[in-house]
């Protein structure tokens, strides 16, 4: 079977699972809502960054993207779903690649729409505080935000395939991005700038210090994601369905 029908089949699975569509809706709603709240917050902080403030809803919103990636893969491990999928597509690498693309495309598209909506509502609240943002900086923030959310969803997908459990992947990633990364990063600095979430979120800042820039930060996140997907692909190919 060629790649196109495999991809179509995986997209049909995602489109028909209400929990996955709900995760995409939650991604949009949570990110936009928290960015709107941030837009009317106090802006007198000397470290205030208008672009990051406008896109700060990504921090809670990314949980929905992570959940989407993990659930899209873990659904295959229930009720013999993976066995059925692999009976139709014996080439496991091709099946896993199609699953990854079917996860990446909707998260990327929804991520771009979400980032644009979050930026617009937050700028309305920030008013003059956001006047210094250039069109290029805003475009970079929106594009980079969508790419970051896609990479985090794929990172979760790879981890779920490796662990053969969506709950296991979420129980590791959600505490990590909400607590561990910020606590360790704020306390230690240095090497923690290369953690997948902290590196990728550099693209959300108007100005940035540290060793990584907006696109190099996303590249670091992409390397983490490729590692997780490679580990997930190995698990799919080497373990019984």
Short description:
The protein is mainly alpha-helical and 241 residues long.
Outline the structure in words.
Helix 4 packs parallel to helix 7 (135-163) and helix 4 packs antiparallel against helix 8. Helix content is 76%, strand content 0%. With 241 residues, the protein is mostly helical. It has helices at residues 3-16, 18-39, 50-54, 58-74, 81-88, 92-126, 135-163, 166-188, 196-200, 214-238. The protein has ten helices and no strands.
Per the principal axes of the C-alpha atoms, what is the gross shape? Answer: elongated
The percentage helix is over 70%
User: Secondary-structure element sequence?
Assistant: HHHHHHHHHH
Number of helices: 10
- Gyration radius over CA: 18 Å
The percent range for strand residues is under 5%
What's the topology here?
Blueprint: H1 3-16, H2 18-39, H3 50-54, H4 58-74, H5 81-88, H6 92-126, H7 135-163, H8 166-188, H9 196-200, H10 214-238
Sum up the structure in keywords.
single chain, 241 residues, mainly alpha, 10 helices
